[in-house]
Amino acid sequence: MADELPDADTLRILILTDTHVGFNEKDKVRGKDSLETLEEALQIGKNGRADLILHGGDLFHENKPSRGCLFRTMNLLKQYTMGSGEVAFEVVSDPACFGTGQVNYKDPNLNVECPFFMIHGNHDDPGGESNLCAANILEVGGLCNYFGRHEDLEDIVIRPILLVKGKTRVAIYGLGNIRDERLHRAFQAKKVRFETPVDTEKWFHVMILHQNRHKGNKGAVPSKACIHEEMLPSFLDLVIWGHEHDCQVKPQESLRGEFYVMQPGSSVATSLSPQEAGLKHVALIDVKEGVFRCNPVPLWTVRPLVMRDIVLSETGLLKTDTQQKQKQRSIAKPKCRI
Amino acid sequence: MADELPDADTLRILILTDTHVGFNEKDKVRGKDSLETLEEALQIGKNGRADLILHGGDLFHENKPSRGCLFRTMNLLKQYTMGSGEVAFEVVSDPACFGTGQVNYKDPNLNVECPFFMIHGNHDDPGGESNLCAANILEVGGLCNYFGRHEDLEDIVIRPILLVKGKTRVAIYGLGNIRDERLHRAFQAKKVRFETPVDTEKWFHVMILHQNRHKGNKGAVPSKACIHEEMLPSFLDLVIWGHEHDCQVKPQESLRGEFYVMQPGSSVATSLSPQEAGLKHVALIDVKEGVFRCNPVPLWTVRPLVMRDIVLSETGLLKTDTQQKQKQRSIAKPKCRI
Ligand SMILES: [Mn+2]
Ligand SMILES: [Mn+2]
Ligand SMILES: [Mn+2]
Ligand SMILES: [Mn+2]
User: Fold this and answer.
1) Is B243 an active-site residue?
2) How many CB atoms lie within 10 A of CB B306?
3) Cα–Cα distance, B82 to B267 (Å, whole number)
4) Is B137 in the A-facing interface, judged by CB distances under 8 Å?
5) CA of B140 to nearest chain A CA: how many angstroms apart?
6) Cβ contact A80:A114 at 8 Å
7) SS3 content of chain A, % helix, strand, coil (to 5)
8) What's the CA gap between A240 and A119, in Å, rounded?
């Protein structure tokens, strides 16, 4: 799949999420990790001849990225999304959903070859006096198409972006992060509506959201502080789940078997948890008419996180042996690298 | 002059400085003043068919402009500098002086019709962990050409940007703000050097700087905390003085008669001083071969600042008359509007 151009009816999308650029940026050793992995992901999209990039939120780790972080991210987006290549798909929905009133590659003053689409996460959500987010700065700089912002929580109307490439029609429903309890309540109260294109069955329906995902009753999250797959409409074909850092990139059938769910996971470990320890991935998905194929691509720049259990009672240490405790500490340290 | 296209040998430059965008932005009445006047200035450049815009620093009032301020400024620059019109001059000096390695209108992925060039002021100077300034964000967004940054204060080498339009050759020497005492010392110690193009006499030499200006011994500024005209080299033809908010836009001959000095002044009053109370201006200058003409244009969006002296002893008030004092206060108030 990679290196070959997608055919005239195949829309190829680089899927990534939770890149958390700027995470730990003051750390002398790990400070550049998040940015390097963002670049690796963008490189995968370029080498893989993606038609577009779709980001699931938490692009930035900080709501107000540092100047250096914003600058370097803009530089990367400029490098990987602008160029003289042709965009082979059309946006046929109302471009008024974008802040600039048009999708960036239609701006006559910009040459965009691989447009970047994104929703916001909880880390980079809009707010403050201006009620803007970092994505708005990227947008006015011609570097992204920001969508999926819903301000009226009493009436959340999700209008898809409609993309057409040859015979393939893809509707993308964006839902930027909303506080989980509030969104849960809005779903329960039927205050979340999806607008669908006419000839609904001729479209491939993708939803991208950034919320806690219900993991059954085993999880620590109360069931009202997350979104259950069953709450999402059955006409969807594929749901891209952002916010969950665990990489479950291979599409899984939803509980009721109505759609697939893929959860790309974060591209940098932001916590010392087993969920962050697995191999990280992005994915290239090919949509051709009504079907899709997912090609997960591992990220090799990610710093390995190794977790191991130590059973103290088996170490032969005496509880009162201070010297041994010191020694044990120095042993335990390298076992938990991030 | 305005409304007519400059001829093929005339380089027309919109000159502005100290726009202090974001000044007082939380003020409910005056919050948008600085941005509105920036737009008025850009409009003057557009209507006046300027070939380029040259800004003398303090574009932003805050070193870290708020998100809304940055966003709206970027939006204005996008609106007024990008477009399908042709740029009628050439930059023939090494474009490595720009952070992106090229002047923005030469970027094949951008359509720039009226390029914006700027130096930094003391308000928007580079620093912090990244050692960047707000201008670098504009630059990576394709919205400005930032120059005149000198990092080695032991050896300040001012290399001009060389612009050619028809028979006219203009060399622009940029010097972004440096702490006045340090720059003064560097000049005295001959650590400031100017590189000039070959055939120096065939060029029109413009210097743009952002420093305290020596005003004789009457001023409050110690003479080592400012730059004296006599310190600047005599081959210059025109010096554009930023930082001084007083509008002295009409070019004045320097003390030794070697060059002209124009001081456009701020476009928003940032202090309650007589210097800020005059009518504000920007200027369109036409350079044709060795000569220039300056066309000052008043800014009408600037909120009038009226200053009047009140001699309390002439008001007929008794010192102990509290009621009268109250009354006087309510009279005095409207006399000092900003
Ligand atoms: Mn995240
Ligand atoms: Mn998140
Ligand atoms: Mn100023
Ligand atoms: Mn200043």
Assistant:
1) no
2) 10
3) 23
4) yes
5) 6
6) yes
7) 25, 25, 50
8) 12
Phi, psi of B250, deg, nearest 5: -70, 125
Inter-chain CB proximity B130 and A84 less than 8 Å = no
Q: Cα–Cα distance between A228 and A239 in angstroms, integer?
A: 12
Residues whose beta carbons lie less than 5 angstroms from ion ligand 2:
A 58, 121-122, 243
Classify the C-alpha dihedral A205-A174-A138-A243 as positive or negative: negative
Cα A249 to Cα A262: distance, rounded to the nearest angstrom: 5
Is any Cβ of chain B less than 8 angstroms from the Cβ of A73?
no
Q: Across chain B, where does the E strand assignment appear?
A: 10-16, 52-55, 90-91, 116-118, 145-146, 156-158, 161-165, 168-175, 192-194, 204-210, 238-242, 248-253, 260-263, 281-288, 291-298
Buried b (16+ CB within 10 A) or exposed e, A40-66: bbbebbbebbbbbbbbbbbbbbbbbbb
3-state SS class at B184: helix
Contact A208, A175 (CB under 8 A): yes
A20-65 per-position pLDDT tens digit: 999 999 999 999 999 999 999 999 999 999 999 999 999 999 999 9
Q: Which of B68, B129, B143 sits opposite A68 (nearest CB)?
A: B129
Write down the ipTM of this complex.
0.91
Three-state secondary structure along B225-261?
CCECHHHCCCCCCEEEEECCCCCEEEEEECCCCCCEE
Q: Which of B78, B108, B136 has its CB closest to that of A140? A: B78
**Cα–Cα distance between A197 and B27 in angstroms, integer?**
45
- For tokens 């790990």, name the residue: A30
> What pLDDT does B21 receive?
98
In this complex, do B109 and A84 lie within 8 Å of one another by their Cβ atoms? yes
Residues of B in contact with A129 (CB under 8 A): 26, 66, 68
Which residue from A82, A110, A140 is facing B75, i.e. has the nearest CB? A140
Question: In the numeric block, which tokens belong to residue A290?
Answer: 């009504």
**Residue A330 reports pLDDT greater than 60:** no
How many CA atoms lie less than 13 Å away from A230 in the CB half-sphere?
Answer: 7
User: Quick one: average pLDDT of B136-160?
Assistant: 97
Distance A25 CA to ligand 1 centre (A): 16
- Dihedral of the alpha carbons of B71, B118, A69, A30, in degrees to the nearest 10: -170
